[in-house]
TrEMBL record:
<feature type="binding site">
    <location>
        <position position="18"/>
    </location>
    <ligand>
        <name>ATP</name>
    </ligand>
</feature>
<dbReference type="InterPro" id="IPR027417">
    <property type="entry name" value="P-loop_NTPase"/>
</dbReference>
<feature type="binding site">
    <location>
        <position position="21"/>
    </location>
    <ligand>
        <name>ATP</name>
    </ligand>
</feature>
<keyword id="KW-0067">ATP-binding</keyword>
<feature type="region of interest" description="NMPbind">
    <location>
        <begin position="45"/>
        <end position="68"/>
    </location>
</feature>
<keyword id="KW-0690">Ribosome biogenesis</keyword>
<dbReference type="GO" id="GO:0004017">
    <property type="term" value="F:AMP kinase activity"/>
</dbReference>
<keyword id="KW-0698">rRNA processing</keyword>
<comment type="subunit">
    <text>Interacts with small ribosomal subunit protein uS11. Not a structural component of 43S pre-ribosomes, but transiently interacts with them by binding to uS11.</text>
</comment>
<dbReference type="GO" id="GO:0005524">
    <property type="term" value="F:ATP binding"/>
</dbReference>
<feature type="binding site">
    <location>
        <position position="16"/>
    </location>
    <ligand>
        <name>ATP</name>
    </ligand>
</feature>
<dbReference type="InterPro" id="IPR020618">
    <property type="entry name" value="Adenyl_kinase_AK6"/>
</dbReference>
<dbReference type="Pfam" id="PF13238">
    <property type="entry name" value="AAA_18"/>
</dbReference>
<dbReference type="GO" id="GO:0006364">
    <property type="term" value="P:rRNA processing"/>
</dbReference>
<comment type="function">
    <text>Broad-specificity nucleoside monophosphate (NMP) kinase that catalyzes the reversible transfer of the terminal phosphate group between nucleoside triphosphates and monophosphates. Has also ATPase activity. Involved in the late cytoplasmic maturation steps of the 40S ribosomal particles, specifically 18S rRNA maturation. While NMP activity is not required for ribosome maturation, ATPase activity is. Associates transiently with small ribosomal subunit protein uS11. ATP hydrolysis breaks the interaction with uS11.</text>
</comment>
<feature type="binding site">
    <location>
        <position position="19"/>
    </location>
    <ligand>
        <name>ATP</name>
    </ligand>
</feature>
<feature type="binding site">
    <location>
        <position position="121"/>
    </location>
    <ligand>
        <name>ATP</name>
    </ligand>
</feature>
Amino acid sequence: MTAREWPNILITGTPGTGKTTHAALLVEALQQAPETSAAPWQHLNVGDFVKEKGCHQGWNDEWQSWDVDEDKLLDELELVQGQGAKVLDWHTCDIFPERWIDLVVVLRCDHAKLWERLEKRGYKLNKIEENNEAEIMEVVLADARESYAEEVVVELRSESPEEMEENVGRILQWVHGWRANNADDSDDEA
Ligand code: ADP
């Protein structure tokens, strides 16, 4: 059982599925809801964190991304995840110690829609193709299921603003449940 007062949530999925948008909306909702507003909720965009903290071995021009130094990243994240109330947002889900994460949300999107989103973002063709194929092959979902207990992983569709709103509402409800269970546990121990 975790000693955290508030849970850590990982929002993952192929690039373009809506992780950053979901994480921002979720943190806003958590900060506003009376049941959760007491916690210091923070959106941690792991890609930005890698850049800010220099957790990389340089820029990979072919793939237009940083070559991540995973050991350094884990050391830096170890310092911030402990207090809980973090919404982590990253396309990789299998490098974190299982004990850090209480809920893994895997966002999914129709591949034609995803292609459009990545094209709009100005990605090079090889990067669009690679990501599109990864989404079709359910790579992130398989990694999540391999790395976390079954009940921790939830797959949600992210193809419309309505779905996004519904997803945020579901995660908010889950946080309420998590708090209720943890409060029960501390009562039991008292
Ligand atoms: P990621 O963080 O997974 O790379 P983003 O959150 O940056 O994805 O979203 C990529 C683009 O797709 C943005 O323009 C965003 O507004 C759009 N988008 C994401 N999810 C949805 C959704 N459920 N409905 C409509 N547009 C979405």
